[in-house]
Amino acid sequence: MEAQMAKSPLLGNRLRRLRKERKLTQVELADRLGISASYLNLLEHNRRSITVPLLLHLSKILKVDPHVFSPQEEGHLIGEMTDALKDPLFSDHDFTDEEIAEMAADAPALSSAFKKTYDAFKTAQTDLQLLSERLSQDFLFAGSSFRLRTLVTSIMSSTEIVHDNEDLSSKDRKEFLQIALKDSEALNDTVNEMLGVVGDGSLTGKTWAPSPNEAVSDYIQAHNNYFDKIERAASEFRSSFNGLGLLSTHVMTDYLLEKHGIEVEFASRDSHNTEATLYDEKNHSLVLSKSLPQSSVKFHLALLLGQLTFADLFQELVEAPELPTEAAKQKGIAALANYFAGAFLFPYEMFFQSAEDLHYDIELLQQQFDASFEQICHRLTTLMRPGSSGVPFHLIRSDIAGNISKRFSTSGLRIPRYGNSCPRWVLHAAFLTPGTLCPQISEMPDGQRFFSIARTVTKPSLGYAQPKRQYAISIGCDIAEAHRLIYADGLNLTAPKTVMPVGITCRLCERSNCAQRAAPPPQQPRQTTSQKRNISPGIGDL
């Protein structure tokens, strides 16, 4: 059976654009490809999938790298544009998926500029909502009128007494002046507090920039979560440790002491109880909590080695347009240091081959590399080296409140940038069975299917006063790649018995019969033919 690429609204648009840039007609290109002009027309209008052999032939004729047809970068842009254009702000316009995809493919710079504009709008909207909430709930503002009037009245009374009574004793005069001075200081503090809320730089008056976390997510997505310079630096650095086996904590602690004069010790009861690790640059010491499992100890040691050895490389890599502010660059350096730690502990070639041989069995990979579930999942998403790439995964991490703290996708899954994700995702269901791996075949409203697994992870507790943090981590791929995963063994992937209908987020999902809807769907023409109605409507029906 001839291999095919999954349908994407981008492929046809990009093919048409490249053909026009080379000044070729459909007839001319079809003739060189050995296909009919009508079939090429169907390809350009996304009515047929492009086979892999045809894709390779196209790349030779058009003189482009086959990766030019990869939907990942533009797919990410399309997802964010769709999120924006489905906002109630644009309810008077009905933009189709095809129109949005065509704009992203034909005018990527304009699309990016639109996305930045919408990001700025959402930031200002959020600031306004937060300020409104604070004004209504903050005790300072709720009682500001009373406090200000009380202080002003007291100051006026004290100064009037001093002014109108010339025969006051020096003691009484000094006492009233002290009252006026004290109330003046209180008045000054009150005014400064009030001005500080609306003048802290989060509202108007500053050029907009994405939050550091969002900027780093965009940066990682733009690089497909693969940094070749770091991979090669980690490989060369590892070779200096003599051997390709697993690195022990003793080897790394000895290296830190010999090369950097840094002593590694475990915290005593009185050392610290608020942080898992504390690096004292001045005293050249690294203190690790005894609560950390062995896999975390090794990762933190590798992290410090990377920060000390490759600071210049990380600084060079973060000089990128996706990281416009100093805060974003610092977050980016931290992310690259974490990337290095994974590349150092789990060498690319060894890890990639093991992942393929073990059919991406995360538990077996944990055992082989003495790593945590989250560490293995992260490393799996970085196997994007041309010529030896792994399964294109998406990765999401969420806390129990639904806040997404990590997101990345090469699978084609659209992860919402604004608001929470669909409650039907297996990511959220994992919290119902802590520690148990949950699989799911999901289907988007457009028919695209994904295979995902999810499991909760618990961060170490530093003591009773520091509660444990729990997250759910989900990793998955397009259904076409699921056969490569051991978790899909025994499943009929072409006609599965159980498929979970999901969306991206309620605001973008058009499913009208979802009992878990938390927000109205995109505006649709109302159907008035039916005489029946639900007398207990859900949120989406209000």
UniProtKB/TrEMBL annotation:
- Disordered: region residues: 517-542
Kindly state one GO CC term assigned in the UniProt record.
Answer: cytosol
Record has Transcription regulation as a keyword:
yes
Q: Which reaction does it catalyse?
A: ATP + protein L-histidine = ADP + protein N-phospho-L-histidine
Q: What is its EC number?
A: 2.7.13.3
Q: Which domain of life is it from?
A: Bacteria
Protein name according to UniProt: histidine kinase
